Amino acid sequence: MEVIKSITEVMEFSQETRDKGKAIGFVPTMGYLHEGHLSLIRKAKEENDVVVVSIFVNPTQFGTNEDFNKYPKDEKGDIEKIEKEGASAVFIPDASEIYPEGFQTYVEIEELTKNLCGIFRPTHFSGVTIIVLKLFNIISPKRAYFGKKDYQQFRVIEQMCKDLNLDIKITPCPIVREKDGLAMSSRNKYLTEEERRDATILYQALTKGKDAILYHERDAEAVIKKIKETIMSKKTLNKIDYVSIVNPYTLTNVSHIESDVLIAVAAYFGKTRLIDNIEVEINANNYA
Amino acid sequence: MEVIKSITEVMEFSQETRDKGKAIGFVPTMGYLHEGHLSLIRKAKEENDVVVVSIFVNPTQFGTNEDFNKYPKDEKGDIEKIEKEGASAVFIPDASEIYPEGFQTYVEIEELTKNLCGIFRPTHFSGVTIIVLKLFNIISPKRAYFGKKDYQQFRVIEQMCKDLNLDIKITPCPIVREKDGLAMSSRNKYLTEEERRDATILYQALTKGKDAILYHERDAEAVIKKIKETIMSKKTLNKIDYVSIVNPYTLTNVSHIESDVLIAVAAYFGKTRLIDNIEVEINANNYA
Predict the structure, then answer these.
(1) Which ipTM was obtained for this model?
(2) Closest Cβ–Cβ partner in B102, B110, B166 for A104
(3) Active site residue B256
């Protein structure tokens, strides 16, 4: 496996790969890889001739008071994991090459960034879109893989590709959870033992909300109330940013639930902000 | 020459061209072609195996009170001219395919759009960048050609390519002028006979400003004053948006002229807004 640090080199690598008629599957990450990331690499490996993974803790997607400086790192461990999954190359650029002096370009996805995390992290998605677009242009993959834990990110990237006529298939992959239900996240490392135990409430509460809908609750506010009460039962819960029931395509709030929805949540346990979500399909097979 | 209206078809055309190892030179236009556009096509033809020209009057780069609805059109005449120059394809997309329902993506170049036309047409450049980026992604050219009459546009596009890691060479081409010095523009068609005569003052004034600098005037304000006075001598002059002396790379205003500058002007003759500019090189060979 090639470990590539420079933009020019990885562009050469991907150009040579495409010249051989081989399809590149791309998995962008911020490193500190867990099973969620590895599931993306496996999916990319299944569907493409060559897999490229990037590791870059992208400064532009962190707000001023967020955790950019303490974001966990384990480059050596990450490279080993990526190689074990059979990727062909890992791209680990330097921030100074990604954002050289004079850099001044941003990409705004106007509608899909208005709700959910867009409310609480107002500059986050423009940081995500710029880095992903740059990486897409550098790697020129045929397919790219994103975890559904960052569901809004997946929809934003999908829309960006559509609107910019990028010939890249965006493939969302299922959330990977710990045995007790907590969605895997590099940020789980920040949690104290007690916070870690309490944080399992997020998935329990989402499941309770989903069940309520499947048992024909149609009032979104009632479902949200139930989820919030469940989460608030935990002592180390610090703050709920949002519990929202949204249209899974437009990410706009739904009040009366008539078709498929996404229930999404962001909450702090201690100082650590966690997000999670669950998809709810409304169909004839719903519970009695 | 192929006349292509659909995005899918032109993507196929350009993919096939690239698969044959041929380089595409791309000339994006809003149609109603004049010698300035044709000079871009000729340059593209010289430097590339295949030339693609696009014609699209891009709604997103017009302000609400601007001339989108009356922008001149001559599709048949344009196609003839493009074919005569030896282009391989002309792409004439429909606005509904370029901006389908739900379209919501914009690209902002933050610094280079702050001065000059960016002040007076605050949404213009985000319309330019989005359409050019979309066309670049659709056509995937090796090189693209822009006239220096829209000097700020050229710098904005150049910066966008750099910041987004697009592997496209942006080639600026000299302003093409009428015999009396007026910079060629599709908008010259709007001018009455008297306005048309008066409009020649723009280039005369720019030349006078350039001469003053070459004769060692170093105070930008003094040069600007001279240019403004010259332009204001004309009866059909309606309004000057700006006369600015700027660093040609950053497009920021210069007060003391010590190195190369660009003098740029935007002014209305009657209801028609015209722009023009002139580059001034500062070196040892300047006039005595």
Answers:
(1) 0.96
(2) B110
(3) no
